[in-house]
Amino acid sequence: MTGHTKQEPRLAGGEDASLRGKVAIVTGASRGIGAAIALELAQAGVDSVIVARDEAMLNSVAERARSFGTRVEVVAGDLRNVETVSWTIDRALAAFQKIDILVNNAGATTRGHFLELPDSDWEDGFGLKFFGAMRLCRAAWPTLVQTSGSVVNIAGAGGRTPDIYFAIGSPVNAALNSFSKFLAELGIRDGVRVNCINPGLVRTDRLTKRLTLESRERRIDPAEMEYQLSRELRIARIGEPEDIAALVRFVLSDRGRLLQGAAIDADAGLTKTL
Ligand SMILES: NC(=O)c1ccc[n+]([C@@H]2O[C@H](COP(=O)([O-])OP(=O)(O)OC[C@H]3O[C@@H](n4cnc5c(N)ncnc54)[C@H](OP(=O)(O)O)[C@@H]3O)[C@@H](O)[C@H]2O)c1
User: Fold this and answer.
1) What are the helix (H) ranges across 45-81?
2) From first to last of its 274 residues, what are the pLDDT tens digits of the chain?
3) How far apart are CA 165 and CA 112, in angstroms?
4) What family does this chain come from, according to its entry (predicted)?
């Protein structure tokens, strides 16, 4: 047990420099929450490997991240495939010789009516968000142990509060929370911090798609749909990707060092239960 008991003092003025010089892998970083996390970490002085399928979009995020003076490597690949996991680890070790941080954020579970969702959608949903994350954790673990590193898994509030169109996303997120809890236990022994964040509704392409579909069904415009959904779900607001990114930065920094195995609801009050 080493890393999570380290007591690095804060800088004068409240700045937390504990992330400076660390190396992160961030998945699903070509847009949305993952891109915001990559940029937030770059501002904190973290070098990174960013992963998703769309190379052009990854390059544009990488360029913005580099403007903060950090080094960024791009891996364009499909994380449902085992090879993308090994390419990602190999690229990180070749470029930076270590991995301190792993943020599993990539996810694309299909919404829809339970009876209309084919097996292939279930396999894709679990294949990317659960198996992709699990495989990356397993492949990165030996080097995370060496660096007393940290894992953050981005799951989702639907894991605890399903809706009727979230047949796949809900169990995927629940499984990722449970896996994170398990891995945190191993992390206590091995000196790796592991935590899980459950966003509620966050303004990204994924939410736009949902609003567009549901607004069509109800024959209202998407802005009205957003308002109606907020009221129906009884939430305080719709989140921005930067809200989740700021939380990830806190969890990963030494200020978050007491967090181990935490399942953090960042959902504007969507989760009503204890
Ligand atoms: N937005 C929300 O309201 C919300 C709520 C709860 C949880 N979440 C979770 O937060 C995470 C990010 O969501 P988001 O809203 O930012 O989604 P998004 O805007 O749709 O972005 C998803 C990211 O995952 C990548 N991705 C998708 N399929 C992939 C694959 N097969 N291999 C590798 N990368 C892949 C996408 O890049 P490419 O297409 O380039 O591959 C993209 O970078 C997801 O896990 C999501 O379930 C989001």
Assistant:
1) 55-66
2) 444 445 545 444 445 799 999 999 999 999 999 999 999 999 999 999 999 999 999 999 999 999 999 999 999 999 999 999 999 999 999 999 999 999 999 999 999 999 999 999 999 999 999 999 999 999 999 999 999 999 999 999 999 999 999 999 999 999 999 999 999 999 999 999 999 999 999 999 999 998 998 899 899 998 899 999 999 999 999 999 999 999 999 999 999 999 999 999 999 999 999 9
3) 5
4) Belongs to the short-chain dehydrogenases/reductases (SDR) family.
Distance 98 CA to ligand 1 centre (A): 25
**Left (φ > 0), alpha (ψ -120 to 50) or beta: where does 170 sit?**
alpha
Q: Best of 49, 53, 75, 207 to mutate for ligand 1, by most ligand atoms within 8 A of CB?
A: 53
DSSP E strands: which ranges in the chain?
Answer: 23-27, 47-52, 72-76, 101-104, 150-154, 193-199, 263-266
Q: Closest ligand 1 atom, CA of 206?
A: 20
Is 34 touching ligand 1 by the criterion CB < 6 Å? Answer: yes
Displacement of CA 203 from its chain's centroid (Å): 15
Residue 134 sits at φ, ψ, to 5 deg, of -60, -45
3-state secondary structure of 162: coil
Amino acid at 202: V
Cα–Cα distance for residue pair 130/150, rounded to 1 Å: 18
Structure-block tokens of residue 119:
């097996």
With a 6 Å cutoff on the Cβ, whether 39 touches ligand 1 is: no
> How many angstroms separate the alpha carbon of residue 35 from the centre of ligand 1?
10
Question: For the chain, how long is the longest CA-to-CA vector?
Answer: 57
